[in-house]
Fold each of these.
Amino acid sequence: MDTFLTAFVEGILLGGIYALIALGVVVVFKSSKVFNLAHGGILMFLTYLLWWLLDSVGLPLGAALVIFVLAAILIGLGIDRFLMRPMIGQSGLTTFIMTLVLGFSIIQGLAILVFGGTPEVMPKIFPEGTVSIGSVTFSYTYLFSFITATVMFLAFVSYFRFTRSGLAMRCVSEDHLISQSLGINVKRIFAISWVVGCLSAATGGILLGSLFAVDSSIGSFAIVRALPVLLLGGMESLTGAFVGAILVGLTESLAGVYIDPHVSGFRQLLPYILMVVILIFRPHGLFGLKVIRRI
């Protein structure tokens, strides 16, 4: 029973991080209808950047985080201005391939070229030690990572629901042309969505790097976990992204405890299995809406 509870709690904590990572993909897709496969590459580059600032350059945490956040904002603005904006009006397949090449070839290759791509240990950002709740024990890193991810997720959701630019973004997600006729600067909303996406990737990278390690596969790890979350929750649902992430975190954690000892590597295979099952039985996700077209 103790093993189950520990795996259950760790699954929820891990799911909170997956939710934050998936949030960035949802935001970009909602506003611009671009499925951003570059998300993992952006996450990897920014995670290595923070490690380099803290470990190699030796900057204090506060200064490193300021540079880190500015870099995330500049990357988001740069991708929108120089890559995505010229492709407005192109097919979804074209932008899909663009983000695929951008993330898995250009950005990841640049990160390996600049930072080496070797596995590194992220300097301690959160307190060391463990916390016990009854018979369940987990590290402070897990706890603070979950708290950080949840707070950031709620902050982004509040931004979308209660600010003028957030409301404008929701309007743009419904119809670009109508939004433009209402005086909304659609290109500006696209830029904001890419900045939010990069900040989501940046924060997710910090948390994953603190929990595991900083290496060249961290971006692929993140996007592979985000895909079943997005499929399960629905591509345009923030609530669905959070619920889907918790479910994916739980199944992954429980599979690691109960199935991995008998079927080696099953935990790493599980995200792909979940994607196939979701696509077969619930292609629109738990919170997604079916698109009805008039013929």
Amino acid sequence: MSTLRSRATSEQRPLPWAAIAAVGTGLFGLGLAVGGYGAYVSLLIARGVSPDAAGLGMSLFLFGQFAAVVPADLLTRRTAVERVAAAGFVLAGIGIGLGAVLTLEATYASRLLLGLGQGAAFVAGMKYVGLRTTGADTATAQGMLGALFTLGLAVGLAAGPVVVPWAGPALPTVGAAGVALAGGAFTARLATVGPDARTVLGAYLEPFTSAGGLALGFGNVATFGFLMVASTWYAEVVAGAALPGTAVLVGFALATVVGRGVGGWLSRTYGERATVGGTLLGLALVLLGLAAAIDVDSAAGIAAGLVLTGFGFGVPFGPLFGLAFSELADDAGVTLSGMMLVGNGAALAYPWLVGRLLAATDGYAAGFAAMGATVGAIWLCWRRTVGG
């Protein structure tokens, strides 16, 4: 995640390594659970659950985050920030644990609670280290937290299709829940910070009433939101193609992680606007190309498309939030919550939609074509409002 600005201070503080370790542990556990969901989708479908019903679990996760981020930020303005983060990790850990019961009802409850908990933990955790650091250290500390979540997601996505069929659904779930709960316990013991200055409810949507602000919010649909769609369905895509599934998923996961660093380099070289705009266009073309490769059953095209989307999701994330924090609300907590509100809210139908189109067409081409067309529309909006 890009910089969440801290309170101004004249003193340079050392990096809060204990806080980074505590919050980062919890976020890594949440990443494991989010990234591993695709393996559980495969099990549900194998048990006769329709693809759209299985995909709805990730839609509920996105809805949970959508519903939690603003209340969580408001709560950090009334009580200690680390307590809000710890409570989020505990709620998410409980939700992850429910996923050990492989029924559709338990899966839905699991994903919803995970989304609610992650929304609270992410906002409050990022805010906590932002209030404990100054200047460039804020970007460094929060970048570490974002990297730990992304690393957990990458590990869960790549390892899930191997570990879940081998060990069963319960063991990986309990492991991820344990890591998240440990992060919550460590976070609860951190030094007290906050509460932060209060704000009004309307402040969270006001930055997105302009066309440029809305384009920034929609950019988060194409990065974080569609990354969640990918983590839901990519395991099933490679399982249905003549591909070395583990190698392709590892390639996608590595591309997502490496893409974060590439995005920073491109931003310094070409600027944030050009980096985000160019990557959005590239991602739209890759998704449309992936849909075409699936339609003609080109194994090489599918493998290349899946890996390249990892860069498409990873590269623009940091520059996008860098622009948001510099151009939207002065209150960084409002900006972070608002970006997550728009990004999760506008993307939440897509995990279900891909499954629905799979059931209707007996293939993934239509679903990924819809995603590509959506990213293309976001790019056009970006070009006309933000530029680059």
